[in-house]
Amino acid sequence: TIYLDHQATTPMDPAVMEVMQTACTQYFANPASPHAAGVRAFREVERARSAVARFVGGARSEIYFTSGATEANNIAIKGMADRCPGGHIVTAATEHKSVLDTCAYLREKGWSVTVLPVDAQGQVTADQVAGHLRDDTVLVSVMLANNEIGTIQPIAEIGRVTRQAGVALHCDATQGVGSLAVDVTELGVDLLTFSGHKIYGPKGVGALYISNRLTDTAPLAPLMHGGGQERGLRAGTHNTAAIIGLGTAVTLVEEVREQEARRLEKLRHAFLTELTAASGTPFRLNSGTGPDFLPHTLNLSLEGVDAQDLLPRLAGLAISTGSACNSSAQEPSHVLRAIGLPPEQIKGSIRLSFGRFTQESDAIDAARYLAGAALPEGARG
Ligand code: PLP
């Protein structure tokens, strides 16, 4: 199989697997235990916390480990909402479901939610955000980069607006941190979330950054109550091996991020060149290139093709239609609808995302394979 679905999840880097294997044998003790074995495990968890803090430009005391980005987004949004019952939240139409559905839940419970429309590229502007802030706005939540079309949002500009207004800004950076250097101060964000399994780390672990400014006076309300781990914000015994794996994953990202971004952009170009040459089926790009888009994402619509029919013919190619994160939902992609695509173009849309272990030959083979499978029946070789 040629794996081109890195936005759904990434394979683990062998270096991450190695440290996790060691962690499972050497650091199995509960990091909360006061004995020597527990203390050794605790130190490794804290080492990982330092790595994550460096990765986002925060302090160690501002990092909380969670089970992933879904949980981190829930804690961030519900935790902030809880500070202002019935208050107002601003988000954007192309956010991940873990943000949109959390906001929808809060709306049902009496909060007021503004979902900003995006332009044809999938961007919101800082002016849009500024225009919707109210006296009772408790949180703005905008993602760093989109998981279906790769659009990068102008977070630093939005951050200047929210800072000036004294409103907290949350950024779901799950899809961005693998490709873009992140600094919470430069971005002006107060809360930031991401996940291990999108950056060649393990599944079931994520991180939440919360600025100490926000928690100086009072902590955020937790979703789960129990043992008081993660300074009471996320109870439950630490997933030590996964946390250690996450620490290694972020360190590796930092080492290779820039060169990988350039390489992946070239792979995407090679794929598109080959697809254009080999394809008898016209296609339209739904994602873009250049500084406003992630370098490894490609979303395109094949004319006259239903992507759901196409997938079974592409058994050797792992790609997705719309978002695999909510593939159980049969409704058309909310992201493609939000950028104004007509239903037939949404129907023919596929998403490919290249990754750390993708070779140029994989990209070219995938393009030829796709071109062949997309031809009408009878015209296929
Ligand atoms: N946010 C974005 C932008 C995503 O792409 C995903 C992917 O699933 C998530 C959040 C959820 O992450 P997790 O699988 O760690 O819960």
Automatic annotation (TrEMBL):
Cofactor(s) required for function per UniProt: pyridoxal 5'-phosphate
All copies of domain Aminotransferase class V, residue ranges: 2-362
UniProt cross-references to InterPro entries, sorted A to Z: Aminotrans_V_dom (IPR000192), Aminotrans_V_PyrdxlP_BS (IPR020578), Cysteine_dSase (IPR016454), PyrdxlP-dep_Trfase (IPR015424), PyrdxlP-dep_Trfase_major (IPR015421), PyrdxlP-dep_Trfase_small (IPR015422)
Enzyme Commission number: 2.8.1.7
Catalysed transformations (reactions): (sulfur carrier)-H + L-cysteine = (sulfur carrier)-SH + L-alanine
Gene3D superfamilies: 1.10.260.50, Aspartate Aminotransferase, domain 1, Type I PLP-dependent aspartate aminotransferase-like (Major domain)
Keywords, in A-Z order: Iron, Iron-sulfur, Metal-binding, Pyridoxal phosphate, Transferase
Keyword Metal-binding attached: yes
SUPFAM superfamilies: PLP-dependent transferases (SSF53383)
EC category: transferase
PROSITE patterns in UniProt: AA_TRANSFER_CLASS_5 (PS00595)
Family: Belongs to the class-V pyridoxal-phosphate-dependent aminotransferase family. NifS/IscS subfamily.
Protein name as catalogued: cysteine desulfurase
Species annotation: Streptantibioticus silvisoli
Taxonomic lineage from the root: Bacteria, Bacillati, Actinomycetota, Actinomycetes, Kitasatosporales
